[in-house]
Amino acid sequence: MRILVVNCGSSSVKYQLFDIKSYSSLARGIVERIGTREALLKHSPNGAGHFQMKVACRDHYVALQIIVDMLTDATHGVIASRRQIDGVGHRVVHGGEEFSASTIITKDVIASIERYSELAPLHNPPSLRGIRACASILKGTPQVAVFDTAFHQTMPETAFLYGISYRYYTQYAIRRYGFHGTSHRFVSGEAARIMKKPISRLKMITCHLGNGCSMAAVDRGISVDTTMGFTPLEGLIMGTRSGDIDPAVVLFLTKKEKISPMKAVNTILNKESGLLGISAASNDMRDLMKNMKGRGRKARLAKLALDLFIYRIEKYVGAYFAAMRGLDAVVFTAGISEHCPWLVKRISDDMKDVVPKSTKFMVVPTNEELLIAKDTYEIIKGKKGE
Question: Which of 2.40.30.10, 3.40.50.2300, 3.30.420.40, 3.40.50.300 is the CATH number of 198-368?
């Protein structure tokens, strides 16, 4: 069985085709800059190098058509026809409280994803465009939605509710949802496998550190708390996002900068803060490490940005250790974790006298696409077996 995994962004479509028998990737790639004259396809068949070309791509439908054509291309393809694609798994950011697991896509599921677009206006609409495109291009092929929020639906009320009127939760569904759930689920399972222990016996803190960053307290395989909240803005300091902040700062900034609250949140807190805002130079960890070696204000601010970044992570490690009343492993994943071993070592050294001495600190590369492919396969297989 072959599963196509699709991840639609506002102007891009990432894809990967898996052979489920061996859980191997047959091909991967991306169509980027959709809707512009600079649209580009990057396609990498497994073991056959890298291919790229400019493409005329006005929307996500055309992007998916290009992808399917490339997968079946006589020269660069890996399958003979589109009929060999047995299922499509879609990364969907927001499933609200309705979806606590991956699910086969139906008209009702599409309606729900559309409804939750209000909570994820930058992410759910592109996913819907991808789902509808695949339904047309791959007629009759079952599709599965894998939600970033699903893994965190096990959080108790004490973890997901905010200290505001309960009416806002019941009326507007304002609560902590958490994101990066697919990554947290994958690496916690992999960490248990590496430790050769059942996940049902382990208490772990998983740290997804990329341009977007989040942590989760995973108690015996179940997410009991996470740093991202109603939106992905809450929690850790990130590449360009502020993370935790006093809400009154927004009101203060709107007055001082003479801007709207919406602009303050969307522009200042989401795009001009975090490592970029503190360092006044870059949101890229490589740039900050380079700047630290210099002198003067640039070096001082680069070091300050990194110190704040690490401090926030260590604070949450302590908080989640207390919340779970125990800790077996702290698991790091995603770009920063995988390319900055010094950061993991520093955190483990800083925390050695705080957490139990038996606590393992490890880096586990994430593979959200593989987990999406596995979920898709299991759901399709289960549906056929009914």
Answer: 3.30.420.40
Q: Is 148 a catalytic residue?
A: yes
Domain boundaries, the chain: 2-147, 198-368
Whether 362 contacts 194, CB under 8 Å: yes
Would you call 31 helix, strand, or coil by DSSP? strand
For the chain, 386 residues long, the average pLDDT of each consecutive 10-residue run is 95 96 94 93 86 93 96 93 96 95 97 92 92 96 97 97 97 96 97 97 97 96 97 94 94 92 88 95 92 92 96 97 97 95 95 95 96 96 69
Using CA atoms, how far apart are residues 285 and 176, in angstroms rounded to an integer?
A: 28
The active-site residue out of 19, 59, 148, 287 is 148
Q: Contact 331/188 with Cβ under 8 angstroms? A: yes
> Burial of 216 by CB count in 10 Å (0-12 exposed, 13-18 middle, 19+ buried)?
buried
DSSP 248-300: HHHHHHHHHTT--HHHIIIIIIHHS-HHHHHHTS-S-HHHHHHHHTS-SHHHH
CATH of 2-147, one of 3.40.50.300, 3.40.190.150, 3.40.630.30, 3.30.420.40: 3.30.420.40
Task: Report how far residue 212's alpha carbon sits from residue 255's, in angstroms, rounded to the nearest whole number.
Answer: 28
DSSP characters over 194-241: HHTS-GGG-EEEEEEESSSEEEEEEETTEEEEES--SSTTSSS--SS-
